[in-house]
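Troubleshooting log. The previous run stalled partway through. Resubmitting the same two chains, unchanged.
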Amino acid sequence: ESVMTQSALSLPVTPGEPASISCSSSQSLLHSDGYNYLDWYLQKPGQSPQLLIYLSSNRASGVPDRFSGSGSGTDFTLKISRVEADDVGVYYCMQTLQTPYTFGQGTKLEIK
Amino acid sequence: QVQLQESGPGLVKPSETLSLTCSVSGGSITYYWWSWVRQPPGKGLEWIGYIYYSGSTNYNPSLRSRVTIAVDTSKNQFYLKLNSVTAADTAVYYCVRTLPNGSSDNWGQGTLVTVSS
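Second attempt completed without errors. Output:
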């Protein structure tokens, strides 16, 4: 089972400033097809999680281009170029290379 | 836009079976995988398992001995059964549409199931 680790449990950010959230996997998420099977989700307060980024760097439909994903193998990053108040919530990484699919413990983005 | 809606009892007694239904509307249940994910109050997300519309399943080993996921394509519904529940199974349960790469692109609103006598 791949263990997903998000180093920061909390991330205070000033609106308009960039933010970066890290996620590491205990096993490489790089498939032989060349894709990294790593997703990012945002769970806004009181809501269900929503898909932001799939296959490490692809924005899901409707996701603003302020959000970007990068990384390969075992280390991944979600970046928000300019944080807005609506971005608050808990960000989870999730690996889907192998079952059981596993999530990071979450990083709570808060506005300063 | 496909929509998912969980339904089922909000309270289950210890040692009994948790049963939930996910109703899919706005799209067909065919040609996708359908998952269950849960979230204990104040905690993170746990993948329970998925089913393909054809009926093939894959479960989290941590729950495999107690979980069953089934699908009824004629009703556009899929189901979760978790038996021998304990307080540790208290959680919000989400039903989710899962893409071939494993990404979960549509989530239900979630339903809180409390295990208590």
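Takeaways: Chain B touches chain A at residues 37, 44-47, 58-62, 94, 99, 101-105, 107-110 (CB under 8 Å). The radius of gyration of chain B is 13 Å.
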